[in-house]
Amino acid sequence: MISLTDSQKIGMGLTGFGVFFLFFGMILFFDKALLAIGNILFVAGLSFVIGLERTFRFFFQKHKMKATSFFLGGVLIVLIGWPIVGVVLEIYGFFLLFRGFFPAAVGFIRRIPFLGSLLNLPFISGPS
C-alpha cells in the first residue's frame, strides 16, 4: 500500500471534492457557484498532493503553456460568470495537459476485471 503524508491525504480529499462539485455543477445545468468551488478545490487539492513547486513546474512548462492557458483561462471565465464557455475551455485544456497520462490510465483500467474485458472488445480496443 502507498503511504501518504497528511498533506497528501488532505489533497486527495480536496481533489475528490473538487471533482464532485464540478460534476454536480454540470449536472445542475452549469451552476456557476458549484463550478467555481469545484475549480478552486481541484487546483488546491492538486497542489497539496504533488506539492506547490511541482504543481507550478507541471503547469508552466514551455510545451504545456497552451494547455495551461486554456485550463486556467477556463477557470477564470467560470469565476467571472460564463460557466458553459469556461467549462469547454477547461475540458480542452485538461485533455491537452493530461494527454500523456491517458495511456497509463487505460493500461491500469485494462487490469481491472470487468472494465478490462470491456476495453479489450474488438470495436473498442482498435486495430492491433
From TrEMBL:
Similarity comment: Belongs to the GOT1 family.
Native source organism of the sequence: Oncorhynchus tshawytscha (Chinook salmon)
Record-level GO cellular component terms: cytosol; endoplasmic reticulum; Golgi membrane
Localisation per UniProt entry: Golgi apparatus membrane
General function of this protein: May be involved in fusion of ER-derived transport vesicles with the Golgi complex.
Regions that span the bilayer: 12-30, 36-56, 68-85
Membrane topology: Multi-pass membrane protein
Example of a GO biological process term: endoplasmic reticulum to Golgi vesicle-mediated transport
Protein name: Vesicle transport protein GOT1B
Keywords assigned by UniProt, alphabetized: Golgi apparatus, Membrane, Transmembrane, Transmembrane helix
